[in-house]
Amino acid sequence: MVPAHAMLSDTIHPYLAVARSHDSNLFRLDDGAVIGQRGDDLTRTQFGILVDMPISRQRLTAQIKRSKVKFSHYKQLDYDGKDYAADLEWHVGNHVEGHVGGTYAQTLTSFNDFHSAERNLRVQRREYVDGAWRFHPSYRVRAAASRNKSTYDLPVQQYNNRTEDQVDVGFDYLPPSGSRFGLQASRIEGKYPNHRALGGMLVDDSYTQHELKANVYWLFSATSQFQMLAGWAERKHPVFAERDTSGLNGRATMNWSMLRKLKMSASAWREFAAVESNLINNSVNKGASFNTTWDVTSKVAATAMVRREKRDFSTLEGRLAAPNLSDKTRIASLGLTWAPTLTSQLSVNAFHEVRSGNASTNYRANGAAVSASIQF
């Protein structure tokens, strides 16, 4: 029999992390804006517990994180963060399996599109269930349902409160190589309970979206993989049909490694996304990114990332905002991590961000962070 303390240490892992960072343009204000202090330093202290517990053929994984974030100058933004997640991987017989779980996150709302010095906490919840039946060694059918809910503290932001319910059904071909080639159909229903006032009437930002996408995981080799969930999507609104849109929607990612020490990943996407601003609540985002990790030694790793994204905003042209609104964001970052032991690490990271366009503020921001973590 395995001792109880050994079982506990194998399945439950507490950890502690501390980070100190600086942001030169905390509120993402326009470069020409006049303000007393643009940047700030912040300290994040985080305690968490990781759970990885096999239960017969099932597997339970969970994460509990609590954090305290303090700002040096804008102390009114200090907040307590919460982050919870749990997932149960279930199996029935040898051919039916799936997951059921949920997440909860409370954090400070990004300043990228809402530039207020008032504290605005955002709570995001997600519940999901999915299942797959492998009725033949090379074929399976699957289905999934999920709900995403976002709520905001500030009254002026509560018209962005939303719930998104999604249902997926799919069919996959599974060759012996370990790859996957499938087709997925989805229906997403977005609901905005707090309607915005416009010209004496209330505007309903709810929508219905239908998708038909290819779902691909192509295992070229042990060092190269291609993933894609992309195809056609159509989004419709109950009022003001000029916001309706359709076309290519999805994301593709290529991963590969060289000499087992250099790992690279490239992604491209065209997706519908929510916007947390005063006038606009969704956009079509087109972008690409490249990430690389170099294992300098067995204990030291260097990382680099570049990302570029253009957002075309869905507006009520002539009623709420000017036509053809868009912006472009470019981000680059570098990092270095030292792991002196298997359960501890020290990291240094720096970033540079630039935004330009006719839809929002044009700004530059630079930042850096030093962090340390240990797992018990």
UniProtKB/TrEMBL annotation:
Classification via Pfam families: BBP2_2 (PF10082)
InterPro entries from the UniProt entry: BBP2_2 (IPR018759), EpsL_proteobac (IPR017465)
Full protein name: Outer membrane beta-barrel protein
Organism: Pseudoduganella rivuli
